[in-house]
Write a structure and sequence with these properties.
Chain B: This is MFS transporter. Chain B: It is found in: Cell membrane. Chain B: Its main location: membrane. Chain B: Keywords: Membrane, Transmembrane, Transmembrane helix. The complex is a heterodimer of chains A (339) and B (454). With 339 residues, chain A is mainly beta. Chain A contains one helix and 27 strands. Chain A has a six-stranded mixed β-sheet, with no helix packed on it. About 2% of the residues of chain A have low confidence. Chain B is built from 16 helices and no strands. The two termini of chain B are 29 Å apart. The chains are: A mainly beta (339), B mainly alpha (454).
């Protein structure tokens, strides 16, 4: 082949490849329009006022297609399939308690997205904001509304890297002080101080005393339920194979996802409840793999998300292992029971 | 490429008569090296596009939890090393099939990109990534062999420097391209993977069209050593083993050694290659992996969380800027000197991480030293190793050195992680620093025969 032929081959190939690439980008950007159209048979969503003190309401991220996609919406907790009221505030993850909300948002930069955590007051006005160092995963507010916590995935950096780490941060919503990562806490495992480069924390849940919290610690290929102390800045490992704990309103039990033997690698979890006094584990009636930090609707019921047609749907199941699973809401994620 | 080549060589050959050193410095890089650099640049754009969005895709696109996925990496490291040796050996068989083995490696990685669109479970994605890295393992040694065969022994450091700089430029551009696509679309991961595939195909095409095949017969193709400069770049010139055959003055063995598996194993009986391999192994054992360096930067120097993702860019930027100057320097003052000086830079970086001084410039200094370490060692080591391997076994020889280094670094991350757990980060890093100093001192005594006149 002469140089001319070769350059000709190259130029025509570049033209074909560029056309294919461009077509795929155009196809993907046309999706934006489709998602702005309300889906047929989907939930009714109307703009309105959403507050974090409204009595008997469930506030969550609406995932139904249409102009209010990804906004915080509210429905009566007793009738979650009723029409949704949309707030205009967009969040990827959300939680609220005692009139304080935490909203993990994407900030669209010129090149890539960055993420931030907003602390919201009862009328969803921003009171503080923090940078989040990676993809937001979990969000929680303490029962008093005095503390907020979130977890982010921080990506690997090697070639085709698949190593991930997590950062769990806790903010004091009264003073604004931030603990950027729980990795700065002392770890006590088996009664001894423990140090590890591979320590990762995620899924913080708070007790009502403004001092105690629970979270997942992963190290050496295992996960642990840890009890943390905000005053002594210490975490103590209590139990193994616990991820994304969620403390019951009465503070006696933890709902969590547990890796079970024999489950497929990409769907390894089942929902369990651990009694913190007896350390007895109870499997719940949900048999599918749940990758969510559950929310207690009351002392008897837990609510969680599973993948659905429009992202995720919400389900509830009794917390004592009895009963059956019930779908309560389609195209919804990150619920919080307020008021 | 071609235009720049002929323009730069004309004065160089005239000057070369009078001032050989200056002439060598100004001479053009062989077109084959530029073509391979382009292939690497384009391929790295493609692969880094995928790497950059993969965490986002797994978590927000597929709703998978990426934790624990890293376990695969460890297992795969060992396999990857084996693949590299196989790639090196296959490339040497049949009188130099470097181009085709490398091309196969690039093609495998290219095919993996659209497969990512079909893989929706962790296992499937893990397999696709494993195939992708098999492609990378296969192509690395033959590609480096092509670079070394296409450049003269005196300019090899710079040739590798140019290649590594182009490679790194691609790695920096890839994430940018990927995020621009995500910005222009809604959940446009399919578009990112499709574009990444198109870019990867372009890389394979550039290799097929513009890199001369036939390994040894590729020749220097327009170096300062009297190669016909007017020849179209990348045109296979059909010469083999002519007087200016690159490795001839450097390799102590007859270049006619048959590339059998046994011959590849026998390579380690050569004193020079054995010493290079031993040094690469020892120094690799004291080279703390990148992710630990960034973690240490964050913990010990208090780099804020939001900058964490940008730390690798600092290393890559320094690598990109320093690869060519340090490659040139290696050609002039001796490659082994620069290789060891690079480890000196790494030692300095460890030292800075160990100090309790918290200046604002400190993280930058560490990143520059870290990037400088790669610039002074990555390509330069291949240039050193090339001197000790006959042409007919070039791929195998380079694969042996690379594999040794990769395995040693992997062992180092395991050891370092364990030491961190038991004694804490400061003690672990101090241990690594002492080990690095000892290995560097030992390597100083093992200096292989230099072929470069300083």
């Amino acid at each position: 082949m002469t140089v001319r032929t070769r350059i000709l081959v190259l130029v025509s190939a570049v033209a074909v490849l560029a056309a294919v690439g461009l077509a795929s980008v155009l196809h993907a950007s046309a999706r934006a329009e489709r998602r702005d159209h309300t889906q047929a048979g989907g939930p009714r969503v109307t703009p309105g006022t959403v507050t974090l003190t409204g009595h008997g309401r469930m506030v969550f991220r609406n995932m139904a297609w249409g102009p209010h996609r990804d906004e915080l919406t509210s429905v009566p907790a007793a009738d979650p399939s009723a029409a949704r009221t949309a707030s205009g505030v967009k969040c990827l993850r959300f939680y609220a308690a005692s009139g304080t909300g935490v909203c993990l948002q994407a900030v669209h930069g010129p090149v890539s997205d960055t993420y931030r955590a907003l602390i919201l007051d009862a009328r969803l006005r921003e009171r503080a904001r923090y940078d989040v160092p990676g993809i937001p995963s979990r969000a929680r507010v303490s029962p008093t509304g005095h503390y907020a916590a979130w977890t982010a995935f921080v990506g690997g950096d090697s070639y085709a890297g698949t190593n991930f780490s997590t950062r769990a941060a806790i903010a004091d919503t009264r003073t604004g002080r931030l603990i950027p990562t729980l990795e700065s806490f002392r770890i006590v495992k088996d009664g001894h101080p423990y140090r590890a480069a591979d320590a990762n924390f995620w899924g913080v849940t708070f007790a009502a005393d403004d001092r105690t919290f629970y979270a997942t610690l992963a190290t050496g290929g295992s996960t642990y339920l840890v009890r943390g102390d905000l005053r002594t800045r210490t975490v103590t490992a209590l139990h193994t194979n616990v991820e994304c704990p969620s403390l019951s309103p009465d503070g006696t039990r933890v709902a969590y996802k547990k890796r079970v033997k024999g489950a497929p690698k990409d769907a390894p979890w089942r929902l369990y409840v651990l009694n913190l006094r007896t350390m007895r584990e109870t499997p719940l009636a949900e048999t599918r793999s749940v990758d969510d930090q559950a929310v207690w609707r009351d002392d008897r019921t837990v609510v969680y998300a599973l993948p659905g047609d429009y992202g995720a749907d919400l389900y509830e199941v009794p917390a004592d292992g009895s009963g059956a699973v019930r779908r309560i809401s389609a195209a919804a994620v990150s619920p919080a029971y307020v008021g | 490429m071609y235009v720049a080549d002929s323009r730069a060589t004309a004065p160089a050959s005239a000057e070369g008569v009078v001032r050989p050193t200056a002439g060598r410095r100004r001479a053009a890089v062989a077109p084959t090296v530029l073509a391979l650099g382009t292939v690497s640049l384009v391929t790295d754009v493609s692969s880094e596009m995928v790497t950059a969005v993969l965490p986002l895709y797994l978590v927000t696109g597929l709703g998978l939890s990426p934790l624990g996925f890293g376990l695969l990496d460890g297992v795969y490291n060992g396999f990857s090393a084996l693949v590299r040796l196989v790639g090196g050996h296959l490339a040497d068989r049949g009188g130099g099939r470097h181009k085709w083995v490398a091309g196969f490696g690039y093609a495998v990685s290219a095919v993996c990109k659209p497969l990512l669109l079909l893989a929706h479970s962790l296992t499937a994605i893990g397999l696709v990534l494993a195939a992708d890295r098999t492609g990378k393992g296969l192509r690395t040694a033959p590609r480096d062999a092509l670079i070394s065969l296409a450049s003269t022994p005196e300019s090899r450091g710079r040739a590798f420097g140019v290649h590594r700089a182009m490679d790194t430029a691609g790695a920096l551009l890839g994430p940018l391209a990927a995020f621009l696509i995500l910005r222009a679309t809604v959940d446009g991961y399919d578009a990112v993977f499709t574009v990444s595939f198109c870019v990867a195909v372009l890389g394979v095409l550039v290799l097929v069209l513009f890199v001369p095949g036939g390994g040894r017969s590729g020749g220097p193709g327009g170096g300062p050593d009297g190669g016909p400069h007017g020849r179209p770049h990348g045109e296979p010139d059909g010469r083999s083993g002519t007087g200016d055959s690159p490795a001839a003055p450097a390799s102590p063995a007859s270049p006619a050694e048959r590339p059998t598996l046994r011959a590849a194993v026998r390579l380690l009986r050569r004193r020079d290659l054995r010493r290079v391999t031993v040094c690469a192994l020892l120094l690799g054992l004291a080279t703390v992996s990148d992710s630990f360096v960034y973690l240490l930067l964050q913990r010990r120097l208090g780099v804020p969380d939001r900058w964490f993702a940008l730390l690798p860019l600092g290393t890559a930027g320094a690598f990109l800027l320093l690869a060519v100057p340090l490659g040139r320097l290696a050609d002039r003052v001796g490659r082994w000197t620069v290789f060891l000086a690079g480890h000196g830079g790494l030692l300095l970086a460890y030292g800075l991480l160990l100090t309790s001084w918290h200046g604002t410039a400190l993280p930058y200094a560490v990143l520059v030293l870290h990037g400088g370490f790669y610039a002074a060692t990555d390509g330069v080591l291949m240039a050193v190793a090339s001197d000790g391997v006959p042409e007919s076994l070039r791929s195998s020889g380079l694969a042996v050195v690379q594999t040794g280094q990769a395995l040693a670094r992997f062992a180092c991350s395991l050891l370092f992680g364990a030491a961190w757990t038991v004694w804490g980060d400061r003690a672990a890093l101090s241990g690594a620093a002492v080990a690095l100093a000892l290995c560097a001192a030992f390597s100083l005594t093992l200096r292989p025969k230099e072929t470069v006149t300083a």
